[in-house]
Design a protein that fits this description.
Layout: H1 6-22, E1 36-41, H2 52-70, E2 74-76, E3 80-81, H3 86-94, H4 99-116, E4 127-128, H5 132-147, E5 151-161, E6 166-168, E7 173-174, E8 177-178, E9 186-195, H6 201-206, H7 216-226, E10 228-239, E11 245-253, E12 264-268, H8 273-276, H9 284-296, H10 299-303, E13 311-319, E14 326-332, E15 343-346, H11 352-361, E16 369-370, E17 391-392, H12 403-417, E18 420-426, E19 431-432, E20 434-435, E21 445-447, E22 453-455, E23 485-487, E24 494-497, E25 501-502, H13 504-507, H14 511-514, H15 526-532, E26 537-540, H16 547-561, E27 574-576, E28 580-582, E29 585-586, H17 597-604, H18 606-615, E30 623-624, H19 627-647, H20 662-683, H21 687-703, H22 709-726, H23 731-740, H24 758-761, E31 765-772, E32 775-783, H25 788-797, H26 799-805, E33 810-816, E34 820-825
Length: 826
């Protein structure tokens, strides 16, 4: 017998990978004679090497794709690369090559690894972001957004590296300095492109309720990011030290019940009024220095619960419109421009951050809500803010009301007085897509003689990335002589081009639709896309729970509004797989704890790696890498190999139920139980317990001895069932063994998934457990579905049970059909 060793594994896996490729076994076509099923993993970045996180992600997707094909579904399972982005640009600069060459090489390496894993992708649909045929349609979609007012340009604060003359992403600022130049990073306000995603905030929030098959924690993260708040916008008069009105200021609050306790109003350091109101004043340089220091810090640092809260008085004041009190205006680091108006009313008695800040700077604390069970709450005795609901005090006509009731009453009153307005706000902000980078989709805009942005004519798309660029200082596209100007084909006139490229999230927000139709003359055909979409199963890491999924949902709704698609949501079902750990730590190159998938495949084969990655833990849990577990997975596959070579024999399998008796019937029942268990586990993504069920079936096969042709036929059925149930998990091995079985000429990938029969699950005899007062005291075999009287008689007759019940009064007899009896005695 040929053994399942390393050389044989390599031969088998290479053989079947070639067969699948040459015969286009997994090529998908839109067709109406079978139900469709679209499986997709999140658009991967071509880092150059697959890691175990990739292996886990792709194995889960491949198992589901193979399983659904065998069930009779028309399966679409494509792959491509999110190939634009700063890492590729930086790596190319470091390696002194072009981003295109570097990226193409990395993609080639990863595709080879994917094929070595036996992943059943439809490679005819392969796409990547830096293909002109792809980013052309990025540009087309951008132009449609621009025409409808969803793409616009405005000034925005950015991290500016004065040495490299370029904008830096937040993660490129290290300890306040540029990651490459080491120069101190400045905050600058420059014009950048935004997408008005806020126009869709309400529908993005509302439609989360439609996503019944998404993890609840992902939906919660999206709800929090969108951040719908009901509150009140309050208008304050701004006055100088002499009480003269110099301006107006608006704040948004979700706590209108606390407005009588305002002791100061605080502005974000980025708020333009901070500088405007201090120009020419004695504190101008002090405020400017403070703002410069604050804006160097990350938002995480500024907003952290344990972070120290710092501020400076601006020397101007606001008048609280509800009671006429003048309170100071401050600039502080714990307020940001991205929430509300960038100005926050501070109520130290009833907000902990305000309380901490007020104590630090000696600001007053005024109580306006007391606990329900306290007659008074003395501010001087407070060690923390009182933030719970209570009874209104020191709030004029609202005294004595419950604070929840006062919220509505005070809002209504302020609105009637003309200085308040009940408001709904969202935490979600418009999407900044400008990147001053080379390796991305060029924004298809030119500027007319008046400096107004105009879309490049659609016939002139794509706007291609030039090759004559310089890296290292400023925006690379601005250094290109061939790119700098757009030439009108009719007039020959030159116009200045936009030199920013798009955020790569733009690329990954609609790629799943492009997979459905790669026609060069359109982004996709609506009929074809509406056939395949939405994606039935989407798989990826929890780290993409917010931005990627939110932007994809937004794109879907926008394209629906264009009339291109008929669905509201892109992904029906979402699975977020857990990370792969080694000794309790996430695998990473920097920690030197990476396990190379290629090394495992070289030694044990792809099927062994696939079995281990699925058996070690449920998909959504963290997976601890274990070398011993890999060896155990190989031994399991070796048992399957030996089963077919040692036990399978040609026989007439046309049996009637009446011919299957005794041990053979038990074997047949075990086969049907395995089909039922594995099928149910696959539906629930419990691949680890599915593999356990296959191991149980193997054990039962090992115990079964064929005594006659009928027995052999039963054994053969069990052998074939093992291969069919295992095929999605270990496809190379199962293909080879399926071919070995007489009469199996086609690929197992096209074989039908086995079905179980309920009648075959019934047992003639069952094991009954006997408890006395809840403790195990015996067990016996009885006829299936035996009644209570019969089981009681048999239990009391059991010699092991008699010891615990004789001479005692039976108070109760508890009976669970086909499982147990419990005798309660005293």
């Amino acid at each position: 017998m040929t053994t399942y060793n390393s050389n044989e594994i390599k031969r088998i896996e290479a053989k079947w990978q070639m067969f699948w490729d040459e015969n286009k076994v997994f090529k998908a076509e839109a067709r109406s004679d079978r139900p469709k099923y679209y499986v997709l993993e999140m658009y991967p970045y071509p880092s150059g090497k697959l890691h175990m996180g990739h292996v886990r992600n792709y194995t889960i997707g491949d198992v589901m794709a193979r399983y659904r094909r065998m069930q009779g579904f028309n399966v679409l399972y494509p792959m491509g690369f999110d190939s634009f982005g700063l890492p590729a640009e930086n790596a190319a600069i470091k390696n002194k090559t072009s981003p295109r060459v570097w990226t193409d090489n990395r993609m080639q390496d990863m595709v080879a690894q994917m094929k070595a894993m036996g992943l059943s992708y439809d490679w005819s649909r392969f796409l990547y972001s830096h293909s002109e045929e792809y980013y052309r349609w990025n540009q087309w979609i951008f132009i449609q957004m621009f025409k409808r007012g969803l793409a616009y340009k405005k000034k925005s604060l950015v991290n500016w590296d004065p040495a490299d003359q370029t904008v830096l992403a937040n993660e490129q600022v290290i300890d306040g300095k540029g990651w490459r130049s080491g120069a101190v990073v400045e905050k600058r306000e420059i014009e950048q492109w935004f997408i008005r995603i806020t126009d869709y905030a309400e529908s993005l929030l509302r439609d989360l309720d439609k996503l019944e098959n998404w993890p609840e924690r992902v939906k919660t993260m999206q709800r929090n990011w969108i951040g719908k708040s009901y509150g009140t916008t309050i208008k304050f008069d701004v006055v100088d030290a002499q009480g003269k009105k110099i301006d107006e200021l608006k704040t948004f609050t979700t706590r209108p019940d606390t407005v009588f306790g305002i002791e100061y109003v605080v502005l974000a350091a980025e708020h333009p009024k901070c500088k405007e109101w201090t120009i020419g004043k004695a504190n101008e340089s002090e405020i400017a220095s403070f703002i410069k220091e604050v804006t160097k810090r990350s938002l995480i640092d500024r907003l952290g619960e344990s972070s120290d809260k710092n501020g400076k008085p601006l020397g101007v004041y606001v008048i609280n419109p509800v009671n006429g009190r003048r309170v100071p205006l401050w600039v502080a680091d714990y307020v940001i421009m991205d929430y509300g108006t960038g100005a926050v009313m501070a109520v130290p008695a009833h907000d902990q951050r305000d309380f901490t800040f007020a104590k630090k700077y000696g600001l007053p604390v005024s109580v306006v809500i007391r606990p329900v069970d306290h007659a008074i709450l003395n501010a001087a005795d407070m060690t923390a803010a009182f933030v719970d609901a209570g009874i209104m005090v020191n709030s004029q006509q609202f005294d004595g009301m419950s604070s929840p009731d006062a919220m509505a009453a005070i809002s209504q009153w302020m609105e009637s007085q003309g200085f308040g307005e009940r408001t709904v706000t969202f935490r979600l902000k418009d999407w900044l897509i400008s990147r001053q980078r080379y390796w991305g989709t060029p924004i298809p805009i030119f500027y007319d003689d008046d400096g107004n942005p105009q879309p490049i004519p659609e016939d002139d798309l794509p706007v291609r990335l030039p090759e004559d660029v310089e890296f290292g200082r400023g925006n690379p596209l601005a250094t290109s002589g061939s790119f700098r100007y757009y030439v009108d084909k009719t007039t020959g006139k030159k116009y200045r081009r936009e030199t920013d490229t798009m955020d790569t999230f733009f690329d990954s927000s609609w790629y799943y639709m492009r997979y459905t139709d790669l026609n060069k003359d359109r982004p996709f055909h609506p009929d074809i896309t509406n056939y395949w979409m939405p994606v039935d199963q989407y798989i990826g890491g929890i780290e993409h729970a917010i931005l990627h999924l939110l932007y994809s949902r937004f794109f879907t709704k926008f394209l629906r509004d264009l009339g291109l698609v008929k669905f509201d949501e892109p992904f029906k079902r979402l699975l977020t797989q857990g990370m792969v750990l080694l000794n309790g730590e996430v695998m990473s190159k920097s920690k030197g704890n990476v396990v190379d998938p290629d090394a495992i495949i070289e030694k044990f084969g792809a099927d062994t790696l696939r079995v281990f990655i699925l058996f070690a833990a449920p998909p959504e849990d963290q997976l601890e890498w274990d070398d011993n577990g890999v060896g155990g997975s190989w031994k399991f596959l070796t048992r399957v190999w030996s089963l077919i070579y040692d036990r399978y024999q040609p026989a007439d399998d046309r049996l009637k139920d009446a011919e299957i008796t005794g041990p053979a019937r038990d074997m047949e029942r075990a086969r049907h139980e395995a089909i039922k268990n594995v099928s149910e586990d696959f539906e629930l993504y419990k691949f680890n317990t599915a593999i356990s069920s296959l191991m149980v079936l193997l054990n039962q096969i090992d115990k079964f001895t064929a005594q006659n042709p009928a027995d052999q036929a039963v054994l053969n059925r069990a052998c074939r069932t093992v291969l069919l149930l295992l095929a999605p998990i270990a496809p190379h091995l199962c293909e080879e063994l399926w071919q070995k079985i007489a009469g199996q000429e086609d690929t197992i990938s096209r074989a039908a998934w086995p079905k179980f029969e309920e009648a075959m699950l019934k047992r003639d005899q069952v094991k009954i457990v006997v408890q006395v007062n809840g403790k195990l005291r015996g067990q016996f075999t009885a006829a299936a579905d035996a009644g209570e009287a019969t089981l009681k008689q048999m239990a009391l007759a059991d010699e092991r049970v008699k010891v615990f019940v004789e001479g005692k009064e039976i108070k109760k007899f508890v009976f669970v059909p086909n499982k147990l009896v419990n005798i309660v005695v005293s």
